[in-house]
Each structure stands twice: as C-alpha cells, then as structure tokens.
Amino acid sequence: GYKKISNEELDKVNRYSKEIPFGFSDDIPDAYSLEEFVPEIGDQKNSGSCVAWAFSYYGMSIIYNRIYDVKSEAGKNANKFDPYFIYNQIVYLEEDSCKGGIYVSELINFSKRYGNKKTFLSPTELSCESDWENVSLSNVIDYTKPYKFIGYEKIIPKNSNSIDQIQYELSNYKYPVMIGIENYGQGLAEIA
Questions:
Q1: Distance between CA 127 and CA 92 in Å, rounded?
Q2: Four-point Cα dihedral 152, 68, 34, 98, nearest 10
Q3: Measured on CA atoms in the order 138, 142, 144, 149, is the torsion positive or negative?
Q4: Which residue in 70, 80, 93, 130 has the most C-beta neighbors within 10 A?
C-alpha cells in the first residue's frame, strides 16, 4: 500500500533541518526505546492501508502516549488512533478501496487539515470498506483537529549522517521516525 512519490515530488520535501551538535555521537545513549508507548499490534488485514497504520495507528499513538506518559495496556488501547479514518478519506471513491495504497504526502496533507481520529470515537468499527458517503466529516473534525501531523522532513539514506539524524531525533526529541520502504522482492528495498 505504500506509494512512492516521484523524485520530483520528493525534491520538494524539506530535508531534515535540525542541527546536530558537534560531538553528538558521544552523547547518544547506549539504548533508547519508545516500545513502552506502542499500542497493541494491529492487523491491516488484506488492505493497502500500511501507510495509515504506520503513521496514524503507530506513529500518532506513540507520540500521544509519550507526551501524556500513557504506558498501561488499557490506556494505550483507549488512546490508539484509527488508521482507517484517514485511509478511507483518501481511497473511498476508488473501485476497490481495500486494494489502493496511499502516498505519505496524502496522509500528511489530510492530517494537517483534519487531524487524526482515536478509534473509540464515533464512527467506530471503520475498515478499508467503510462508506464515507454516509458519514459526514464535519461531524468528527471537532475532535480530530487537535491531533495533526504538521509536516515531515526527509532523511536521505545515502547521506553519511542519516543514522546520526535518526538517532538524534529519537534520543533528543523522543519521537518515532517513520520510514517508507518500497519492496522490490527478493529482499531488495528502497527507503524513501
């Protein structure tokens, strides 16, 4: 379900902009994990919704749980974000909405405008087949707008400091780093 944007579109995405201080690698902890904030493992079933699962369900849930120090299983379950809220808004008019993938840029742009929805808030039980023609977006945006992705930056995997940038983001800002990987089969992949 991950749709890779064209090189022209990728060139428009801002590069990672945070300055890494000289000697930073000496300050990197031996280990750091956000695992205690990760919601239960979900199942995208047979749908092209992996980008929404990575960003909304896991990414937004981890960010929320870390900010509010939600570590209990009950708390993480109550505060997890719905991957199908944004996914359905992007693909619901396609012939087979479960097969369609989405671009990270589509998800971010939708989130900037409407936010992300927690799974327990109505409408519940969304899936890749949910019909948004029967649900008014205006009925949910009052409680989705506070949970927005405001943007994203690219880390160039071939740059010599890309690992430092990822480590810096994790250890200093304590945010998950979400990546897109296009699989070419036989173990070959391209990271975007």
A1: 11
A2: -60
A3: positive
A4: 80
Under the banding of pLDDT at 50, 70 and 90, the label for residue 189 is very low
Among residues 58, 48, 111, 110, which one has the least CA distance to residue 81?
Answer: 58
> In the numeric block, which tokens belong to residue 124?
């519940």
CB 41 within 8 A of CB 8: no
- CA atoms of 146 and 152, how far apart (whole Å): 17
- The b-or-e profile of 147-170 (16+ CB within 10 A means b, else e) is bbbeeeebbeeeeeeeebbebbbb
81: nearest Cα among 129, 37, 36 = 37
**Average of per-residue pLDDT across 130-143:** 73
Distance CA 59, CA 47 (A): 19
Residue with tokens 């493992």: 41
How many residues does this entry show for the chain? 192
